Structure prediction request, 488 residues.
Amino acid sequence: MLSLVRSLWEVFRHAFAQRVTVQYPEEKPYLAPRYRGRIVLTKDPDGGERCVACNLCAVACPVDCISLQATEDEHGRRYPEFFRINFSRCIFCGYCEEACPTYAIQLTPDFEMGEYKRQNLIYEKADLQIEGPGKYPDYNFWRVAGVAIGGKDKGEAENEIAPVDTHSLMP
Amino acid sequence: MTWNLFPLVIIAVVLFVVLNLAAGLIWVERRLLALWQDRYGPNRVGPFGLGQVVADSVKMFTKEDWVPPFADRPVFVLAPAIIVATALLSFAVVPFSPGFVVADLDIGILFLLAMSSLGVYSVVLAGWASNNKYSLLGGIRAAAQMLSYEVFMGLSLLGVVILAGSFRISHIVEAQRGLWFVVPQFLGFVLFLIAGVAETRRLPFDLAEAESELIAGFHSEYSGMKFGMFFVGEYIGVILISATISLLFFGGWLGPILPPALWFAAKTMFFICLFILFRAALPRPRFDQLMSWGWKVMLPLSLLNLLVTGAVVLARK
Prediction:
């Protein structure tokens, strides 16, 4: 019986305690940089497209909300012809970001994506692309990858040794 | 002409105040619960979120009013009306200030207890008519709980009746001019408070609708305004018990400076808030604990209280 009175008193004292509610629209909560929100497609520091249309994000996606079509430009660079994310399906698990070999697809601390029409939740490539490099400012996939593209031959990438001349006998 | 219109005015005012207060309690309860849980509660609709009352009522009225095909239709429809009707009828004998009462009956307390006892029909019939095992279990629980708690609810008030020498509520209030009955009848007050919480089926005694065990108990199948009637009926019950406590134990409208009706309202509001604090703080007992507590502890205590009060009053004469 006394414990009941005590708990009544303890609960009553909470009337003067600090509120835990964040008054959202007026007061925005702090979201960590690694918060998993709206998905973006980032660009290299030199402005080139990072995505190589490898389809790994689409494969990793547990709800199949990513769809894309790979194509190649005249320099032999692979890039997505279209890249579409259906945000009415997306569960913001971040598996696409983990799967991405080029840091192209990234999740951002933005969740304010409410729409009145469901169709508006389907983001095309133009809606997803941002100008900057996102969380990895110095990373440039095409400059470190040992793939020959227009303007960069084999052996010209960063930290890449020149390819072995298989027709020569010299060491 | 004025002499026969005045009672109608009183009735209109009482109905207006009680029904509006019952609707407003939705907001009060949500805000107070939030206060004690370190939240804000509804604060968006209108000033202090007061528009929530209107929003909730509109929602309640526009919801689909559905009667399940397996239900016993006439009883199903009748049940929610009973609880509101009996609760409102009880207010006929509640004096808001000296003279401002619909019917100052000689046996006001008995009428009040009788009306709150009739309220159990609503819950039992709702549980029965829903034709659903959880509703029925809720109805059975409500019947057992209210019957056993009514026994000492009446007995705990008899101490007050002995001291005042009258069943008329206005006499009882006037008899507290020197000293509120809560002092000589503290045990009676505690017993009546517990019985009152059980009688209105409020937490921690809401076993009839214990949502973690019985979905929503007796009103599982109710929707729309029929559910709203149970809701409003419960709140009117809370107001009624709070008003009764303040009338019988805390001197009703008696108090210095302020007008009597204001004193009465303030005391009633205090106990309504206490009811909500009970809900915020106390866990629900098991049903067998509830029953044994009622019969083995509360009933003997209330009989003892009655015996001692009677003996003291007799010895003084």
In short: The longest helix of chain B spans residues 2-36. The interface with chain A takes residues 35-40, 277-278, 280-282 of chain B (CB under 8 Å). The radius of gyration of chain B is 20 Å. Residues 66-316 of chain B form one domain.
